[in-house]
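I'd like us to work through together how a protein chain folds, taking it slowly. To get us started, please write out a protein record for me. Go ahead whenever you are ready, and we will take it from there:
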Amino acid sequence: MSQYPASGVLFANDRKQNDKQPDYTGNLEIDVETVRDLYQQMQNGGDHPKVNLAGWRKTSKNGKTFLSVKASVLRERQQNSGSSYQAPPQNNNIDDEIPF
C-alpha cells in the first residue's frame, strides 16, 4: 500500500448509516520493526501492546479529505520530564555491597 513503514490512511466513511458505524475507515500497513516491538511488549507481560500514532489531514487527487497516519515503535512520555522517550528499564545485575 505505502512506501513508508507502518503507515496508512483513514477516509471519512461515506457509507455510514447509523451512529454505531465508524466515522473513518481505512488500513494500516505495519513494518517488521513495529511488529517485533509489539511482540516484545507481549513477551514482557503487556496484555495490550501499543504503538505511537501520528496523523496528517490531507486531500486526495479527487478532492476527498483523509487522514494519513503513521505508526511507530512505542515511546512512552515520562510524566515529570520534557522528554518524549522513556528508555526501557535496564537489567543491571550489580552484586556490590553497600558499606553503610
